[in-house]
């Protein structure tokens, strides 16, 4: 498994893998992915035989990003590394790729002493993601209710 920074040529596969992760990953267009890559602090792809099989995108505070979940953290914390989305292709799940990606995020956050912020869907429920985040020592710090969904807000100290 090779890890590297995501590039513009990865966008079609980022989009495809993101689509496979719905509703947990949040729906975005390929053009929105272009913008996410532009404003992200950290973009990491997991590659097997030069093929993208998973990715993670992270943001620092006060980035121009119109996500309600991200705004929730911005209103409450000065410093953090926000995991906007992490996704692994359907054919590569349960093979530790998500864990390898999170290890990269944790390593980066430790360099700068950033706590890591993330959210997990409560409605619709995403118990697999909740177990995943708990394995990485994320703690529940709040709940944000949207019109048709709600999420558990989580934080991990570095």
Describe the protein's architecture and organization.
This protein has 158 residues and is an alpha+beta fold. The chain has helices spanning 11-20, 30-39, 68-76, 97-112, 127-135; strands at residues 2-5, 42-48, 51-59, 81-88, 116-123, 139-145, 150-156. It has one domain (2-156): Aminopeptidase, CATH 3.40.630. 34% of the residues lie in helices and 32% in strands. It has a seven-stranded mixed sheet, sandwiched between helices. It is globular, with a radius of gyration of 14 Å. The relative contact order is 0.16. The mean pLDDT is 93.
- What oligomeric arrangement do these chains adopt? single chain
Rg, alpha carbons: 14 Å
What CATH architecture would you give?
3-Layer(aba) Sandwich
Q: Could you say what the CATH topology is called?
A: Aminopeptidase
Number of distinct beta strands: 7
Residue share in helix? 25-40%
The structural domain count equals: 1
Quick one: CATH superfamily? Answer: Gcn5-related N-acetyltransferase (GNAT)
> Strand pairing plus helix content: what structural class?
alpha+beta
Stretches where pLDDT is under 50 for at least 5 consecutive residues are none
Most strands sheet:
7 strands, mixed
User: How are the strands ordered across the major sheet?
Assistant: 1-2-3-4-5-7-6
What fraction of residues sit in β-strands?
A: 25-35%
What is the averaged pLDDT score?
93
Taken from the alpha-carbon principal axes, the silhouette is globular
CATH level-1 class: Alpha Beta
Terminus-to-terminus distance: 25 Å
Number of helices: 5
Give the ordered list of helices and strands.
EHHEEHEHEHEE
């Amino acid at each position: 498994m090779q890890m590297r920074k995501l590039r513009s040529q990865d966008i079609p596969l980022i989009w495809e893998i993101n689509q496979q992760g719905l509703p947990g990953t949040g729906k975005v267009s390929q053009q929105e992915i272009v913008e996410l890559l532009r404003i992200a602090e950290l973009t990491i792809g997991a590659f097997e035989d030069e093929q993208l099989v998973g990715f993670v995108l992270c943001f620092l505070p006060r980035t121009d990003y119109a996500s309600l979940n991200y705004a929730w953290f911005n209103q409450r914390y000065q410093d953090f590394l926000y995991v906007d989305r992490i996704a692994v292709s359907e054919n590569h799940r349960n093979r530790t790729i998500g864990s390898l990606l999170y290890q990269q995020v944790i390593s980066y956050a430790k360099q700068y002493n950033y706590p890591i912020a993330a959210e997990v869907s409560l409605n619709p429920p995403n118990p697999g993601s909740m177990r995943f985040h708990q394995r990485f020592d994320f703690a529940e710090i709040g709940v944000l209710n949207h019109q048709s969904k709600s999420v558990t807000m989580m934080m991990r100290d570095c």
